[in-house]
Specification:
This protein is α+β, with helices and mostly antiparallel strands. About 40% of the residues lie in helices and about 15% in strands. A hairpin with a 2-residue loop joins strand 2 and strand 3. Helix 4 runs antiparallel to helix 5. The longest helix has 24 residues.
């Protein structure tokens, strides 16, 4: 197999290419990538020809965002609690958020490609950017549909861009408090003790404490402090669901989706559609129905390039995702129901309501995906605890 896209690693705020496109993926390279935390790559072969996953933002903007955010994160890691994120830095990050919003609007508001196939040693950086991208998309749609309610209870539609920029800043910095949590706790493979959980639960407030007084709007603050709160009151740090600000709800959805779909030390690998289904299952309890509905029409559960099994037994690659039928993409069928290879042809899942995607496949010729790979490094208990704290 040859690599279809470069693989990056992110270290100290710099995004470094680990492998170039066209690199040969041998078993040894594959094992090395897995050790580096890379759980999926794009490959180029005859079958996948012409399938180009559409990324929500350009690589140039991703680089710029990683650079700006990386320098903020590096200073927090170096100086701990005494760090202050100053107004100037916030302004630079605000510039990144505006650029993100511009690009997202041009790209038509859909997350289809796996947003982050890179290996991040500081995973919070990639996570923060993904949460920001997804949250801005949800926020833009929600504000355009429903407007916002002012202090007097009036629904308004003015100043949407400025509200979204403040939301985006909160999303970029929602997890900075995590940089203060000792690595022994954050990466502990086993179950956390109550005391350790208390430390983890402090990170929203600890993050806000790092930001210079007056540099951050209250519309950004609510996203940081409330991203682990849930509508049903089962979240933290306050455990109060009523009057939860819409920015906190958006941050919560984006955070859960990216946390569950990314691979973590304590998590088994989970295909993106599982994270998508998890968010849908939390509608009406942890998250409001209207926002989950917007999520459902914004994020593609099966991105382009993913190998799938259909309910009639055929296999193929997702070749095109369209926003109108985001969970019923075009499939490039490669195998008939008996598993025999066929000359590839395109099949519109949107026109065939009696066929569904029944599974994702690691390998078109291999057996269906095994249940999550829970190796020694991955503790079931820690994973369950993490999932419970995510879902409330
Ligand atoms: Fe968090």
């Amino acid at each position: 197999m040859r690599l279809g896209r470069p693989v990056y690693s992110c270290s100290g705020g710099a995004r470094l290419p680990l492998l170039q496109p066209d690199a040969l993926v041998t078993d040894r390279v594959r094992a090395g990538l897995e050790r580096a935390g890379v759980f999926a790559v794009y490959v180029d072969d005859a079958v996948s020809e012409g399938i180009t996953p559409t990324e929500p933002i350009s690589p140039e903007l991703r680089d710029r965002a990683v650079r700006e955010l990386g320098s903020t994160f590096t200073s927090i890691s170096a100086n701990g609690r005494s760090t202050r994120i100053h107004g100037e830095q916030i302004e630079r990050l605000g510039g990144v958020v505006s650029a993100l919003l511009r690009e997202l609007r041009q790209s038509g508001h859909m997350v289809s490609a796996l947003m982050d196939l890179q290996s991040f040693d500081a995973h919070t950086l990639g996570h923060s950017l993904n949460v920001c991208v997804l949250g801005l998309m949800l926020g833009d749609e929600a504000l355009r549909r429903h407007g916002w309610t002012d202090g007097r209870g009036n629904v308004r539609r003015d100043g949407i861009d400025s509200r979204l920029e403040k939301l985006g800043l909160g999303l970029l910095l929602h997890d900075v408090g995590k940089l203060l949590i000792p690595a022994e706790i954050l990466q502990k493979p086993g179950r956390l003790t109550d005391d350790e959980m208390d430390i983890v639960r402090e990170h929203p407030q600890a993050g806000l404490d790092l930001i210079e007084e007056g540099a951050f709007s209250s519309l950004s603050r609510v996203a940081v402090i409330g991203h682990h709160e849930r509508l049903d009151g089962k979240g933290y740090p306050h455990g109060r669901g009523e009057d939860l600000h819409v920015h906190a709800q958006i941050a919560g959805i984006a955070d859960v989706y990216d946390a569950v779909s990314s691979m973590r030390v304590y998590q088994a690998r989970r295909p993106t559609h599982e994270a998508w289904e998890l968010v849908l299952s939390l509608a009406g309890t942890a998250f409001p129905l209207d926002l989950v509905r917007i999520f459902k029409h914004t994020v593609a559960p099966y991105p382009e390039g993913v190998a799938v099994q259909l309910s009639d037994g055929r296999r193929g690659l997702v070749s095109r995702v369209r926003r109108e039928h985001i969970n019923r993409p075009t499939i490039r069928v490669t195998h008939d129901p008996d598993g025999a290879p066929v000359t590839a042809y395109e099949f519109e899942l949107a026109d065939a309501w009696d066929v569904v995607i029944s599974d994702t496949l690691q390998d078109l010729d291999g057996p269906p995906d095994a249940p999550p790979d829970r190796t020694a490094a991955v503790s079931d208990e820690r994973h369950e605890q993490q999932l419970a704290s995510i879902t409330g």
